[in-house]
Write a structure and sequence with these properties.
single chain; alpha+beta; 11-stranded antiparallel β-sheet; 11 helices
């Protein structure tokens, strides 16, 4: 079943993507809509005793092109999107006043739903809570196993640290995506210590200068969440990225006040570029994937400038990243660290 002519595109809830995946087409003749319409149950309204549930395909690109508020470049970024929506009705008994008497009557109170956006041929993004996203992944894997190889994406804390270091050092990112500012971060260690197992900083004007985060990095805690404003070809997007593969696009900047179709499109375009950036980062040589030694030295000195004395050695974190970065830089670490012991 698909949206019918005259329907407006809309979504309920937040732009939270708990399913980030890369895909590989196994059958060059694969037609997404044809397979979905053939293999999956169409949605139709139900009753209290038998709630409606099923699927709809959504002509997402058509909605984009027909909406005069959506800029043309955004339609170009999303020109290969195929969209599937799952709907399941929620019903409850509620009190109804009838001629002064109160009776209990069944009423539909909303929907459980998820949206799946496939950007042929590379990416699949699922908007929905964690449980629904996992259900969607399993459903689509089973339904499309002859046509698509679907692989879940999680973001390495080292990648989030790399983003943090690029912003701190005023270095750009590759491609069309750049960082305008980072405002929030969450760090997490393997085991609790006197400083705590995790820490969080929110609503900072520049989280790369936040002492709790800088101290955590020097104590070898991982960056497991970053939030900030990204510039995507002139669209400013506030996003919260978590290492487990969750991305929340917040109602701010480019999407604030925009129609639902534009909000969804900006989110999908951002996810495409962000996951591409991550995939490229994974392929980099070690010395380009990890912050240089000077990054940790700068953090140490930034703490001193703010009047915070680091009373523990930083050689462990430098050693960790020099070994990750490559033997040449590790040798530089061995010969140049003494002054910070």
């Amino acid at each position: 079943m698909s949206f019918t002519e005259g329907d407006d595109f809309s979504y309920s809830g937040r732009l939270v993507f708990n399913g980030i995946h890369t895909t590989e087409v196994l059958d060059a003749e694969f037609d997404f809509e044809e397979v979905v319409n053939r293999e999956l149950e169409d949605f139709s309204p139900g009753t209290f005793d038998s709630p409606g549930r099923g699927y709809q395909t959504i002509p997402f690109v058509q909605y984009l092109r027909e909406n005069p508020e959506v800029r043309g470049e955004l339609s170009d970024l999303c020109s290969n999107i195929r969209t599937l929506r799952y709907l399941e009705e929620k019903w409850e008994q509620s009190e109804v006043d009838i001629d002064g008497d109160t009776e209990m009557r069944p009423a539909r109170t909303g929907y459980i739903n998820f949206d799946a956006y496939w950007n042929r041929p590379e990416f699949l993004f699922i908007r929905g809570d964690k449980t629904n996203a996992e259900t969607a992944k399993q459903l689509l894997s089973n339904t499309l196993e002859d046509y698509l190889d679907i692989r879940e994406v999680t973001f390495s804390p080292d990648f989030l640290l790399w983003l943090f270091s690029r912003e701190k050092n005023n270095q750009g990112l590759l491609g069309d995506l750049s960082i305008s500012m980072l405002t929030d971060a969450r760090i997490e260690g393997d085991e609790p210590d006197l400083f705590g197992r995790e820490g969080r900083v929110s609503d900072s004007t520049d989280v790369t200068k936040s002492i709790p985060v800088l101290q955590g990095i020097l104590r070898q805690m991982g960056v497991v969440q970053l939030e900030g404003v990204f510039n995507l070809s002139g669209f400013f997007v506030r996003a919260r990225i978590s290492s487990e593969g969750r991305v929340h696009i917040l109602a701010d900047h480019a999407i604030q006040g925009s129609p639902d179709i534009e909000r969804a499109a900006i989110s999908i375009a951002f996810l495409q570029k962000f996951v591409s950036l991550y995939e490229n980062w994974l392929e980099e040589d070690g010395e380009n994937k990890y912050p240089p030694e000077q990054f940790f030295v700068d953090i140490y000195e930034e703490c001193n400038r703010q009047g915070v004395e680091i009373q523990y050695p930083i050689d462990d974190v430098i050693e960790e990243y020099r070994q990750k970065g490559g033997p040449e830089e590790y040798q530089q670490y061995q010969t140049g660290l003494a002054e910070f012991n």
